[in-house]
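User: Can you predict the 3D structure for this chain?
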Amino acid sequence: MPDTLPAPPWAARFRGIRQLEVRRVADVTPQMRRITLGGAEFDGIPEGVNVKLLLPPRPGVALELPLRTAEGRPLWPEGDRKPVVRTYTARRIDRDAGEMDVDFVLHGDEGVASGWAARARPGDVIGVGGPGGRTVLPADWYLLAGDHTALPAISRILETLPGNVRGEALVEIPDRTEEQPLVHPPGMTLRWLHRNGAEAGTTTLLVDAVRAMIWPAEGRPFVWVGAESAAARAIRAHVRDTVGIDKRSMLVIGYWKRGVTETEYAATSDHDREKHTNDR
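Assistant: Here is the predicted structure, written as structure tokens:
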């Protein structure tokens, strides 16, 4: 009988979750840390823009990843050993090098993911589900609008847009120190909106900037938004009801909700995606 190769470790895990390790850690700005992941399980990882990161529930606890039952359901570690799941952007995937970059906004130790990123060292392990998810569709002009948490996604989108497109990218950040040099088509205008001491999720900077825009009269539009729940909902309502852009020409996602964990936010409103939102 011919020899058969053994199944890879991720084949027994729920949705093929990979275990990757930290290769490098670098600070892009004072509050944005880039962590490069790789390892033996990287080969053949899917394409996509969003990744599910599975993190140890607290410092000092070993990472345990969910297995897949015969019925295809997850078999999670019990009790306080269950990993924490967070959604991030795969900022860069380099298949030749066998690695992926994920950018984290650092909030001190307030969040599980931020705390993990602040402590991360080469050799640390993390679970990665995906990548997958939707991104922008072909268009003549774009509006990209997001806060600090959406900056990695906006950066990746700008790098991949055709060189002849037009539009605006609006990014709300804490202050000037968080600006990054971003590659973008010459017809895309990049505008930084500084909170200057205001707490994230407490201003209307992003919403006001979108409402003040002068929209092109011609060409196929596409609107991409990633922001705090209230901002995402307000921008969607304005773009749909006032500007008149069809929902098929936009992708608006609440990246987070003030005072609510990602797990609760996803469970209760699916990150304010269109089918769960009533902005009227």
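Confidence is low (pLDDT under 50) at residues 276-280. Residues 229-243 form the longest helix (15 residues).
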